Every structure is written in structure tokens, then in C-alpha cells.
Amino acid sequence: MTIYLNGEFMPIAEAKVSVLDRGFIFGDGVYEVIPVYSRKAFRLPEHLRRLQHSLDGIKLPNPHSEAEWTHIVEEIIARNEGEDQYLYLHITRGAAKRDHAFPNPPVPPTVFAMTSPLPAPPAELLASGVCCVTAEDNRWLRCDIKSISLLPNVLLRQMAVEAGCAETILIRDNEFMTEGAASNIFVVKNGKLLAPPKDNLMLPGITYDVILEIAAANGIPCEVRRVMKEEVFAADELLLTSSTKEVLAITHVDGKPVGTGKPGAMFARLYQLYQDFKR
Ligand code: PDD
């Protein structure tokens, strides 16, 4: 596997980062995950725009122009195998003497990119859907930043795994749904798609945007507004989206069936529309 680190392409085994790197010490950095379909990065400008938003959010100058990022992305895809891949981009505030405040003068950021094969979701997962648990959203108030400080997300996802499930649906203030530990969540009720608004309490998902675009283009009614906890439990269908999972049906929550307990008509429609759209 060939990765990119600070201006060079190299085998992953040769890649080295200082133990003083602020990503390692403080989780002081941001990242992106971008799907690659048929060896072409999907929605790259949108992902690079979100990366800029994350960098702005942590006051870290963007080390590369859009053209430079595009070159890095195309090169790393070319140097690795697999028709479908997922790209990981990671920028930290660099290596400096340990001090919470930003290094002054600034040090060069650490820029890392790698790509891995992206397997299609197994047919049985599409047929049966996935189960989720719910938990209080105990993260910070800048969930719109794609921060590499993922400890809350790690612990929340682990809750799902320990319950034999795929994802944890996050409920803020015991009141409303924000997203999943590493995904966005949609509620389907009476043929309508309900989506939480893109604010500081959730990551503005690129797949989330694609789903809303596809829905609008195909006459599927959508409402973007706060989605209450009760609406999650009373949903006809629940959908999970992310760059690596595309769209999945959530068929059980906290051990109880969602609607019929089987993937529904809205899932089937959006899944097919997404497949057509991504190629
Ligand atoms: N995670 N919300 C959170 C907290 C996420 O971490 C992700 C994606 C999403 C979905 O966003 P998108 O559609 O742009 O992938 C929502 C990636 C896949 C990850 O951390 O691996």
C-alpha cells in the first residue's frame, strides 16, 4: 500500500511521524473520508470544501490548494489497487514541544493520505438491514468539525458493537436525534424523509446531501428540521448514511423493530437511486 506523507508517496511501512505530533499528543487535527467509485473520487470538491470548513474551525491554514489536493488524491488512487476505494485525508498541527497552545511560530502541519479497498455492502446486510442502539450524545458543541479527536465517537460506536449492533443513534439532551457515531440518520414517516438540520451538533454529511438531492430530484417529500427522540422510535423506517456505508436500512433500535422490522420501500428506492447516481 502506497501512502502520501508530507509531500512524498511511499510504502506505508516506511511512513514515520514524530511522537510529538500534535495529532498523536492532543488529537489536534482534522480528517476527511472520501469514497472512490470506479477509480474516481466521488464528490471531491464537496469533501475538500468540508475539509476547509474543518480547518477553519481549528484555525489551521490549509496546506494545499484545491488543485494540489486533487493531484494528491488522483495520484494516490493511481498508485493503489481497487476499483472502489475509500480515501482518508488527515492534517494535524504538526510536531512541536508539548504545549496546549498553538506552536508559535507555527510548525509545518503533518499531511497524511491513504486509501483502502471499499467493499460493496454485503447482500445480506442490504436484505436484513442493521440494528442500532441509542445513547445520549455526550460530544462537544462543534460536531460540524471533522476532528480526529474521536474518543466520544469511539466509545459510542463500541456501545453498539457490544450490543451486537452496527451503530449508535445519538440523542441530544434526551430530546432530539443528531446523527450516528459515524453516520447520519434519517427518519421516514408517512412517506416523508425527515432529516436533522446541518448545524453545530452534527457532521454535515456528504452522503446526507446526496440523499436529499436525490430525493428532491425524484419527488420524494423531505423535511429538514429537528427530529425528536419519539419520532425515532415511532419511525416507519430509519436510514443510515455515510461515505463508507452509502445507505443502509436500520431495522431494529434498542431491540425493537422499526416499522415492519424489514428494510422498507423508501430504503429500496433511495438505495437504487444512490447506486445509479454514484456511477
Ligand atoms: N464518518 N457523522 C459522523 C460523526 C461521521 O463520522 C460521518 C462519516 C458521517 C457521514 O458523513 P459522510 O456522508 O460525509 O461520510 C456523519 C466517516 C465515514 C468516518 O469517520 O470513517
From TrEMBL:
Coiled coil: none annotated. GO terms for biological process: amino acid biosynthetic process; carboxylic acid biosynthetic process. GO terms for molecular function: catalytic activity. Transmembrane segments: none annotated. Pfam families: Aminotran_4 (PF01063). Its cofactor is pyridoxal 5'-phosphate. GO terms for cellular component: cytosol. Keywords: Pyridoxal phosphate. SUPFAM superfamilies: D-aminoacid aminotransferase-like PLP-dependent enzymes (SSF56752). It comes from the Bacteria. Belongs to the class-IV pyridoxal-phosphate-dependent aminotransferase family. This is Cytochrome c550. It comes from Ferrigenium kumadai. The lineage of its organism: Bacteria, Pseudomonadati, Pseudomonadota, Betaproteobacteria, Nitrosomonadales.
